[in-house]
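As the work plan foresaw, our protein records have gained a structure token line. A representative record is set out beneath this paragraph:
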Amino acid sequence: MRHLHPRTRPAAALGLAAVLLLAGCSGGGSGGAAALPDYKIPAEKAREGEAVPQGRTGRSADMRFTVVGFSTAMTDVMGTHAAMDAKGAFTRVRVLAVNTGRDIQVFDTWKQRLVTADGRAHSPDVNATMIKRQPERLSVGSSMRVEFDLWFDIPRGAKVKTLRLYGSPPVGAVGDPAPAEITLP
């Protein structure tokens, strides 16, 4: 840009410097800026016999997990196309997963584990997962949230201790991330 009057150049430069200085001082700080609002997500009713634990959250890589429902000692499972009795007792865990990263995360149901008080780690039950039409693998986009059930068939009378949840490795990682360890009631 060319100024018609050369004497206005210093004044214009000072004005631009003041604007840039003020712009650099505003915005990203916590100096009294209002907090962002929360989304208002409609509440869901708990299912019959389901506990609704509070504050059961953990993180694995870019995935943040929250246990929103929990049912134990179920003797059978029924779906639209099949029914099956448990070998021991079914445990159903309702999970909310949020991808906090910039890339797609793949949630793999078969990597997840339910740990009982005796220290044994149990894999999800294939048949209950299929009967209840829950995902095996799920692509979770950036800033996306999903909610689903994990089904486990554990020995009858076994006490549930921890849910061990694995996110997928972030871009550039050379190994699997540490799991989220969420204590269950």
Notes: Residues 1 and 157 are 80 Å apart (CA to CA). The beta strands are 57-60, 63-78, 83-99, 105-108, 113-116, 121-122, 137-140, 145-154, 160-165, 180-183. Residues 22-28 have pLDDT under 50 and may be disordered. Residues 8-25 form the longest helix (18 residues).
